[in-house]
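Lab notes, practical 5.
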Amino acid sequence: MTADRILNWSPAAIVFDCDGTLMDTERHWQDARIRAFREFGLKPPAGFAERAKGVHYTECGSLMARETGKPELTGAMTDSLLRHFMTLVAADPVTMPGAAALVRLAACHLPLAVASNCPLDVVESCLERASLLDRFDHIVVAGDALRPKPHPDVYAAAAELCGVRPQDALAVEDSVTGIESARRAGLRVLGVGPRPADGGQDRADLWVDALSDPGLVAWAHARIVEAEPRA
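Output from the prediction step:
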């Protein structure tokens, strides 16, 4: 990893992933997948959770149906997946360790955005419940005009909306799919959370176990907080 690309650098904007990065929702997606499989009398294939991490929910629904040999259930499984997820996250919106503190600190000095594969109403609802929505200048999600991660569209659009060049923005991600998206868009990448099983963390410039990591907090104070406050 090229940690110096982060540690010896000050970003002009930060773009965060939402699921598993800002919000502790990856477990909700996992539970939602299990419930959706169960709803149709199916079992998750071995290793499915890792393959599904960071994947757009419509693609995940298709993958669920395809890998269980039931492609005709793609639409129904996709709808079931999203329904179960929204129920779970509404009942238990929790931020990831250190996420709220970093967002609140950085928002005073830099433009911030979210780039997500989730539907807009899900992202906004999660952030609103966590009292973080108003800290972000822009929320960018995959849709008709923007292809989902690992395509670069959402990160490229987020950097543009923040008014900075992609190479001057930092992406914060927890999945290999998201890291690939940010890389393709030209952003530097901070990876966070459990290391991917396939070693994909090497695609990030720096990896930390949590956004509360003492070294990362020190970097934020040195490279973000000491910058000029936003008007």
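Observations recorded by the TA: The first strand starts at residue 13 and ends at 16. The radius of gyration is 17 Å.
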